[in-house]
Design a protein that fits this description.
- The protein is mainly alpha-helical.
- It contains 20 helices and five strands.
- It has a five-stranded parallel sheet with strand order 3-2-1-4-5, sandwiched between helices.
- α13 packs across α18.
- The longest helix is centred in the N-terminal third of the chain and has 20 residues.
């Protein structure tokens, strides 16, 4: 009997359109393995909300594998060491895996050498094929999008293998419950179950229903009070569905254009990591290294107020409370809240990036870093620092009254005319905090800070 092969799973927790699984099953007996590696990522080990999702996603994947007379082996530790140990235990000489672009995964992949066979499956196309004329990754999205379109449509998704051959003997693995991925003291995830169902089956169901909604996406995605987004982002992040499966579920139609650009943006942010692997920690524009971010006790208190949704700006507070309660924040409000931290409070974008990283079920290293640097104006393809979102105006423009009522109950009884800026309207209830800083004052302070870089 030939030796088994290892299927190394990371953010690709699915059976559909899983090229590494297809290749492994073609080779013979397959041992699917997931390694909880908190060592290789260092400070970027997955956050609390992702761990909640991961627990349920791994349970769902194991159930799906068992229906195919296979199973998921769990190990914990540095991925390269754990894989080498499994190879010795099982006699495996080959590891199949989908390529990842986070710097710690690229380092782990390189260390495995010729034993590792890598496949492209977590993006629309192979990112190394979408490059500038000089053969380098794009750092500007518009140019990336133009080049990517010439390679669309992506390949058709691969079907699930009819059989997943099992080894004659299974290696030992950890119990999922022993990893204690779910919060207990306190259990801040109690509302997550109402908002999310992790796993491939739910991801495929959402993608199947999305074509009926996508025509209204370009308008509704900016309206916090409406359910106008796909809610596919955490499923895509954990690899429970592939981008090309979503693409082919939609078809490259005019109605799907705005949403397909969002899929492309996700690819673009991974491409940025090829060029700038430390983008989550380092300004894309070095001149912003000298920006005088606020430090000290007052800044810390302001950061905590932002995290807890106590800024006195209803749209910001609604978003931050939604984030804490559900592990997700509406796309438009995500930007407004981020801009408020960076521009109104003049607090380093990395503080907000880390908070989102811990609280978001869809926190993605590349996407999170590129989006924060875009908002902060520090990135290679970014909004200008001097462009400062007006949260009160944004709230009214995008009709966020009902969204605020849902997440800031202290303001539930206010009218549409007063809820966006209760201070200005003289309608703020005692239970709700006043604005921590006025918009004009914050804007002048931010611009003054930026002027020191000239």
């Amino acid at each position: 009997m030939t030796e088994p092969t290892l299927l190394w799973l990371r953010q690709d927790l699915r059976l559909h359109d899983q090229p590494a699984l297809v290749a492994a099953a073609h080779d013979g007996a397959v041992i699917p393995v997931y390694i909880l590696d908190d060592d290789a990522p260092g400070a970027w080990a997955i956050g609390g909300a992702q761990r909640w999702w991961l627990h349920h996603s791994l349970a769902a994947l194991d159930k799906a594998l068992k229906a195919k007379h296979s199973r998921l082996i769990l190990r914990r530790g540095k991925a390269g060491d754990a894989l080498k140990a499994l190879m010795e235990e099982t006699g495996a000489t080959r590891i199949h895996a989908i390529r990842h672009y986070e710097p710690w995964w690229r380092e782990a992949e390189a260390a495995l050498g010729d034993a590792l066979a890598l496949y492209d499956g977590n993006h629309l196309v192979r990112l190394e094929d979408v490059t500038t004329g000089a053969g380098t990754p794009f750092k500007v999205f518009s140019s990336f999008w133009k080049a990517l379109q010439s390679q669309l449509p992506p390949d058709e998704p691969l079907p699930v293998p009819h059989t997943i051959p099992a080894p004659s003997r299974w290696p030992a693995g950890d119990r999922l419950d022993d990893w204690k991925l779910l919060p207990t003291a306190p259990d801040w995830s109690q509302s997550f179950d109402h908002d999310w169902t992790p796993g491939e089956a739910e991801a495929l169901a959402k993608a199947k229903g999305w074509p009926q909604e996508v025509a209204a996406y370009d308008r509704r995605r900016n309206l916090p009070s409406e359910e106008g987004t796909s809610r596919l982002s955490p499923h895509l992040h954990h690899g429970e569905i592939s981008p090309r499966s979503v693409y082919h579920a939609l078809g490259n139609t005019k109605d799907a254009g705005a949403f397909l650009r969002e899929l492309a943006w996700r690819d673009f942010t991974s491409g940025v990591l090829l060029a700038l692997p430390d983008y989550g920690d380092v300004n894309g524009r070095p001149k912003y290294d000298a920006l005088p971010w606020r430090k000290g006790a007052a800044a810390k208190r302001d950061l905590e107020a932002w995290q807890q949704g106590r800024t006195g700006y209803p749209i910001v507070d609604a978003g931050m409370r939604q984030l804490w309660t559900s592990g997700w924040i509406h796309n438009r409000v995500r930007m407004i809240a981020a801009s408020f931290l960076v521009k109104h409070l003049l607090i380093d974008w990395r503080e907000g990036e880390r908070w989102y990283w811990d609280c978001l079920v869809d926190a993605d290293y590349g996407n999170n870093a590129v989006n924060w640097q875009w908002i902060a104006g520090t990135g290679v393809d970014a909004n200008m620092f001097g462009r400062i979102m007006a949260p009160l105006g944004q709230s009214e423009k995008f009709d966020a009254a009902d969204y605020i009522r849902e997440w800031v109950p202290e303001l539930r009884d206010l009218t549409d005319a007063t809820i966006h800026d209760p201070d200005e309207a003289g309608a703020r209830p005692d239970a709700y905090p006043p604005k921590m800083i006025g918009h004009r004052e914050a804007r002048e302070r931010a611009l003054a800070a930026a002027a020191t870089l000239s």
